[in-house]
Design a protein that fits this description.
Length: 86
Amino acid sequence: MDEVMYQTGCELGKHWAIRDATTEQLLRVLELGNSWDWVACHDEPAEDFTYIVDPGKSGFMGLDEKPSAAFVAGFIDGAQAIVSTA
């Protein structure tokens, strides 16, 4: 696991959950369950995550880059942490 990418994703996931995510998007993230299990089941976790959470976007959350599975797992965990405490 790339710890730096995971931590970066986690912080950005928290930021997104607090500032940008809709209630519907947050519920979709909660439904994903364990982030590591989820990314392990997907060949393209960034694309699949974007399709589930924000199907109107292209690329991961509107970015042209494909972040690593560790980043996506961190993003999911960060967002879930915010939703769980709300």
